[in-house]
């Protein structure tokens, strides 16, 4: 699936969202999340200095992030998502997605605190109230380790998380 098959529109979840311009089948690659590669320390500086409005880091390794470009930054979270991140930055359909349906993934599957760097910088871990409105909404978006054991097991067993999360939590 190519980027031109995705569009940003007003979302019922939060602000803008990304919607499918055509149906997407289970297991199909939706897109590769793109942006500037940076370390956690670099992202903390960006946030602390308010240098960049609309910055949105995606965790791809223990200390590496992608500061997402607008299209990818607009993909909303859902506790009952229809997509997941595979490898480092490949967004894949978790189930069939209909034409015009909003594409979502569970942000918590990409979040693993790096306490040493965060404490050293004086920054705080990112958590936010969830507004996905799904039946199984957890009411908060937080670190992977805060997910229930059942939810963690589902993501790990099916490999519905980035490689760095699978490596760390599948041990």
Care to give the gist of this entry?
The protein is of the alpha+beta class and 171 residues long. The protein is built from five helices and twelve strands.
User: Shape, please?
Assistant: globular
CATH architecture title: Beta Complex
Q: Class by helix and strand content?
A: alpha+beta
Question: In which order are the strands of the major sheet placed?
Answer: 1-2-10-7
The topology string of helices and strands comes to: EEEEHEEHEEEEHEEHH
CATH class: Mainly Beta
As for the number of domains, it is 1
Number of strands: 12
CATH topology: Beta-clip-like
Main β sheet profile:
4 strands, mixed
User: Mean of residue pLDDT?
Assistant: 87
Strand percentage lies at 25-35%
